[in-house]
């Protein structure tokens, strides 16, 4: 065997370390009991996670779900009299807005022509901040 001295050294080191306490984890199917130690003053009945309000991933998923619902509702109400205009744009519309801005159209003109909610165009930034890339220009 390659370098037979490694195994006796490893065995000696393991004897020095001795028995270790496992890191407690929660599993509903586990039959092992929790072993208490001086470092573990409280027992938990389940996994410890940050509150949903402090969890960035859960907050992002909730915001995504909420925006998807709002976009779906807006889509369902398109064409209904008294609508306030679109707030959600697809990529092609964003490109059209940028091209129209580059050609000198005002935010108000663009919003009227594309039936957008007031202020949507200004949120895309000032003229010249972005340049549309490739393709036919409307």
UniProtKB/TrEMBL annotation:
Residues 27-39 have a biased composition (Low complexity). It comes from the Eukaryota. This is Helix-turn-helix domain-containing protein. Residues 21-48 are annotated as: Disordered. Residues 88-130 form the Helix-turn-helix domain. It comes from Cryphonectria parasitica (strain ATCC 38755 / EP155). It holds the Pfam family HTH_68. The lineage of its organism: Eukaryota, Fungi, Dikarya, Ascomycota, Pezizomycotina.
